[in-house]
Each structure stands twice: as C-alpha cells, then as structure tokens.
Sequence to fold (289 residues):
Amino acid sequence: MENILIPTDFSACAVRALDYAVYLASLTKAKISVHHSLSSQNSYGNEEFALYSELLLEKDADVRKKIDQYIGTHQKRTYADTTLPIEWTTNIGYSALIDDIKRSVEQDKVSIIVMGTNGANGLREVFIGSVTAEVAEKVNIPILAVPETAEFGKGIKRIVYATDFHRYDPKVIATLKRWAAAMNAKIDCLHVSMDIDRYMDDLKKTHELEAHVSKQTSSESEQVISFHLVQADNLKEGIEKHHKKQPADLLVMLNYHRSIVERLLHRSNSKQMVYHTKIPLLILKAKRA
Fold:
C-alpha cells in the first residue's frame, strides 16, 4: 500500500472514515492524503464551477484550517511497531469531486480510497451515499466505504468476504489473508444463495472454493479462514443473517464490470450495499470475466 486517499467534506461520517484510514496506514506504513473539493459540483449537482479568485482564496484558507482541525491529534499517530509518525499530505481541488479524485489517484499513486457514507435515507444521506457509490463505479482501485454508524472499537478482527464464485476469488482471498495477518483477524468467506433450487449447486461451489483455497493455504492460515453458505431472499438479508451469528468488522465485495444490458437489468450488488451497509464496506475492482 503506497498512498491512502481520504476525500472529505468534514462531516461526521468523514471523521469516522479518518479513524479507519489511520488504522490502515499504521499497519501498512502508507501515506495519507486528505482531499477536499471546492467545486460547486461537489455537493449540489452539475452546475458549472464559477467562483471569483478572491472568494477562492478565502475559501482555500478556510479549508486548510478545517483540514488541520479534521486531522487533529491523528497527526501524532505513528506507524505500527515504530516511532515514525504517519506521513500526511493535504490537497484542495477545484474541479468536480469525481474528477479531482481520479486525478489524485493517477498523480499520487493512490492504492485505496477511504470515504464516509451515510446510506440513502434523507436528502443529505442520498448525496453522501451516491457520491461514494459513484466513486466505486468509476475509479479502478479499492474503495473503503465507512458508515457514520460504524464502531471502530479495537480495529478489524473479523472480515466477511461476500463471494459470488467469481474467478478472481482465490486472488481476493490471498490478499485478504495478508490483511488478516497484519490485523490478527479472521475471514468468513460467505455466499448468499438466493434461489432455493440452486442451493445444492451453491453448496457444491462453496466446497470447491474451500478445497481450492486449502491447497494454497498453510495449516496455520486454515484456522484464519472459514466458508459459509446462507439461504436468503436477497444479498442484504443474507449478509445480515450471517452478521447476527458472527458480527463482522469489515465487509468485502467484488465490483465487476457488467455489459450495458446487464447494467440495465441488474443493480450492482456492491453499489447497492453502499447505500445499506452498517459496517465498513471494502469494494474491490475486477476486470470483466
């Protein structure tokens, strides 16, 4: 991990996202880049950006003060097992937020974006949730969406990977095992079977995935990961059913590119979960199978 980007609007959910970004940075020795966009497109639609230079300078100075307050005591945090302080950079953008983020990802070699999200209940929440979902759709790096209701506690100790038996599963699981080792966490590999007629086929695929992963896993790592199959009417219900039995600190999903027809007929599960998640959601990108 080279650089963590936090786009912030200084809201309560953005503050919660900062907790998780600092946690990841401390474990991976990554730099943290805090970004705020001054564009009028940032929060209120697609109007053209039109601010006078004097107003921009005033806003720029005000935002820099807010960024310092936002980071606050986190500036004193150190990387795990060292006395080296976490390295911070700050940036103010003047384009639409999504354009600023894409530019930062390319220029600063960002490896993960951490954003706050409030879901989709009420006008403010619709904006926050939809922006995070749009970033997840348009940026080709992992996105960690952190809801305001997330409880950081003692960090991430249980990770749930919601699999749909994608060909990238072994690579995803290998990556999550490295994360789990650094966090001293356990992994639940979960599939939600939403068709009773396909349950036995889903059970077979679950066993096949478990066997495939076991061949590439040491005996110690086998104790870290377990495989689960849940029957439910929809993905959200299935994840919540599992969460009641085994509360998770992080939900992980793959967001793979669909054809135009598929996008019209189906709503992306990972994008839908941005609006409904109550625990942090890590969205990983995969090329179209």
Summary: The radius of gyration is 20 Å.
